[in-house]
Recover the amino acids of this structure.
């Protein structure tokens, strides 16, 4: 596989679901079947996010690094960025947002999902945080449905538990069979090269810690 495909720099093999979302063809088929089954069970399963380019991930990263977007800890509490160091900021961003080139959303195999109708009926502001998928949240019924049915359509949750790497994300699904090739081919060397040439904030601290980032967050091995 060309590095550009897992780095989010080549979407030539992906297909459009609509004007906002692209997926790998096999994932589109699986998602459509799962969505139909969920709707039949009264769950309005819809996409929040799907394929994301390297440049789009870089824009998300830069917004968080510059303080334009709030940062949260692994328990979803907002962090005061004015009192933390650059290395602490690095960890805070990586807990919820992947390093450009290191995101599973670059592959067209991974999706973020929600229950659209349940969120519309809800009185709160939807922020895609863990509490919204728990017992008092609008997407709790969706979370329960996914636990019972997602495997039937080939999906799993790569961030089902927090181990010191990426925070728990009960909305993030990956198509297991299709994502395996990307998991196998991603590597530290090409990721480092992509970061060196990127227009990314905090580049010096990223490069100084790139091996740690790769193992702890990109591979999600967590703290060792």
């Amino acid at each position: 596989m060309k590095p550009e495909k897992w780095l989010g720099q080549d979407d030539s093999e992906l297909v459009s679901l609509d004007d906002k979302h692209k997926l790998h063809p096999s994932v589109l088929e699986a998602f459509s079947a799962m969505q139909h089954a969920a709707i039949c069970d009264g769950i309005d399963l819809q996409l929040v996010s799907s394929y994301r380019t390297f440049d789009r991930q870089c824009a998300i990263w830069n917004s968080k690094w510059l303080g334009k977007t709030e940062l949260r800890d692994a328990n979803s509490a907002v962090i005061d960025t004015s009192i933390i160091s650059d290395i602490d900021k690095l960890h805070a961003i990586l807990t919820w947002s992947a390093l450009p080139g290191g995101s599973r959303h670059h592959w067209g195999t991974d999706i973020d999902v929600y229950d659209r109708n349940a969120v519309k009926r809800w009185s709160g502001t939807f922020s895609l945080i863990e509490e919204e998928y728990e017992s008092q949240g609008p997407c709790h019924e969706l979370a329960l449905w996914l636990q019972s049915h997602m495997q039937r359509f080939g999906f799993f949750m790569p961030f089902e538990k927090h181990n010191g790497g990426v925070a728990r994300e009960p909305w993030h699904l990956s198509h297991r069979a299709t994502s395996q090739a990307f998991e196998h081919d991603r590597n530290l060397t090409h990721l480092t090269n992509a970061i060196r040439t990127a227009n990314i904030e905090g580049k010096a601290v990223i490069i100084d810690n790139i091996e740690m980032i790769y193992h702890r967050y990109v591979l999600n091995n967590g703290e060792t």
About this structure: The chain has a mean pLDDT of 95. Residues 25-40 form the longest helix (16 residues).
